[in-house]
Sequence to fold (148 residues):
Amino acid sequence: MPDQDDLFGDDPMEDAALEAYERDRDGLQDQITEYLEDFEVNPGVAVIMLLEIMISLRLEAYGFGVENPSVAGLKLDLDRLGHEVAEALRETKKKAELLLEEIKQARADAEAEEEAEEREGSEDEDEEDEQAEDEDEDGGEGSEKSPG
Fold:
């Protein structure tokens, strides 16, 4: 049975909206990740902060997005948010094995890169030491002046 998307063909507006969504999501993630690294924020604490920010943004979206905001409407909207989060978590759990493999690979790549940088740094230090020794040897011989 064909996928529902296949029945109607590609929609360029949907494709553009998806691309914009992915661009914005990736940009936000990059900025957040950079901030967390720059300020050495614990990832576990960052999750709680981002959860609070998510709720705050949803409150603002509701408050400014409806004509007559109400307590009951806000509670319903927060319930919808809870369901959206629960669905996202269910989908993530389904992909847990693949996601964990990707994380393990990223860690291995980062460790290999770190080791390569350390080797490169120690090679540079060895070269600098050799150059300093050569300069000391050259400086010692060249500093003697012949009687004139």
Summary: The mean pLDDT is 87. Residues 43 and 49 are 10 Å apart (CA to CA). The longest helix spans residues 96-142.
